[in-house]
């Protein structure tokens, strides 16, 4: 079953923060986050494993709440380059590289 | 290191024809997964290959098939094309076979248009 992402779209001004959520009805083994710009391939951002660890680099970080089967992606002090569609991909078991993707969150950062 | 490469980048086919798409993973990566991306259905998993064996399969009809060669390069084939097969086909390579914890890197995709 496809994870649910929220919000579906968000518009920010440069420097503002955003949070994108990804929820699953199934128990998750891992959550993968990607950003895709129009006409380009998805670009890997980070991966989180069950255990509730938080990860981050630069001004983008993410958390994984194993009890709620939910992951959140945090974008702080957004830049124009952050614009794109963000996807979470989930895996429910350690059976192979097959991700079930959410519907995506469109993020637009304006000057 | 070179990234994931896919050929061709664009393809136009007619209903009923068949098509073969190619994917070369990042050097050293042994797992290749294929995904279909459409505006209506989003990103959907097709299948995954590791060591020339299909390890996982998504919910697609048998017209969609694939294979992997000993050098980890992979091909996918779609037979008897339908209009609904028009999509961006992405392949992703991963370093380690056992799944869940390993990063997948996507290629630029093949844009297939069926007329």
Give the SSE layout.
The complex is a heterodimer of chains A (111) and B (115).
Chain A: E1 4-6, E2 9-13, E3 18-23, E4 30-36, E5 43-49, E6 54-57, E7 60-65, E8 70-75, E9 84-91, E10 100-101, E11 105-110
Parallel strand pairs in A: 2-11
Antiparallel strand pairs in A: 1-3, 3-8, 4-5, 4-9, 6-7, 7-8, 9-10, 9-11
Chain B: E1 5-7, E2 10-13, E3 19-24, E4 31-38, E5 42-50, E6 53-57, E7 64-68, E8 74-78, E9 87-94, E10 104-106, E11 110-114
Summarize the structure.
Chain A has 111 residues and is mainly β.
Tally of individual helices of chain A: 0
Secondary structural class of chain B:
mainly beta
Q: Largest interface, counted with CB-CB under 8 A?
A: A-B, 27 and 28 residues
Shape of chain A: globular
Low-confidence regions of chain A: none
Largest sheet of chain A: 6 strands, mixed
**Share of helical residues of chain B:** under 10%
Portion in beta strands of chain A: over 45%
Number of helices of chain B: 0
Main structural class of chain A: mainly beta
Q: Largest beta sheet of chain B, briefly?
A: 7 strands, mixed
H/E order of the elements of chain A? EEEEEEEEEEE
Query: What is the mean pLDDT of chain A?
Result: 90
Helix content of chain A: under 10%
- What is the overall silhouette of chain B? globular
Distance between the termini of chain B: 37 Å
* Distance N to C terminus of chain A: 37 Å
Topology order of chain B in helix (H) and strand (E) letters: EEEEEEEEEEE
The fraction of residues assigned to DSSP E strands of chain B is over 45%
What is the CA-based Rg of chain B, rounded? 13 Å
């Amino acid at each position: 079953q496809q994870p649910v992402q929220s919000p579906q779209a968000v518009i920010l001004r440069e420097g503002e923060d955003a949070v994108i959520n990804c929820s699953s009805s199934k128990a998750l083994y891992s959550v993968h986050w990607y950003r895709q710009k129009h006409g380009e391939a998805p670009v890997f951002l980070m991966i989180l494993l069950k255990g509730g660890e938080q990860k981050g680099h630069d001004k983008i970080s993410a958390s994984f709440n194993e009890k709620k089967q939910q992951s959140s992606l945090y974008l702080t002090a957004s830049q124009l380059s952050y614009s794109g569609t963000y996807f979470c991909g989930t895996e429910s078991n350690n059976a192979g590289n097959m991700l079930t993707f959410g519907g995506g969150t469109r993020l637009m950062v304006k000057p | 290191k070179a990234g994931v490469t896919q050929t061709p980048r664009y393809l136009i086919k007619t209903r009923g024809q068949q098509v073969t798409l190619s994917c070369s993973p990042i050097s050293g990566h042994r797992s290749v997964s294929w995904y279909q991306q459409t505006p209506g259905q989003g990103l959907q998993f097709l299948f995954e290959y590791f060591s020339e064996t299909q390890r996982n399969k998504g919910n697609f009809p048998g017209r969609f098939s694939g294979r992997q060669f000993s050098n980890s390069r992979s091909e996918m084939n779609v037979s008897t094309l339908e209009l609904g097969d028009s999509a961006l086909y992405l392949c992703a390579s991963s370093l380690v076979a056992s799944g869940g914890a390993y990063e997948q890197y996507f290629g630029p995709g093949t844009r297939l248009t069926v007329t």
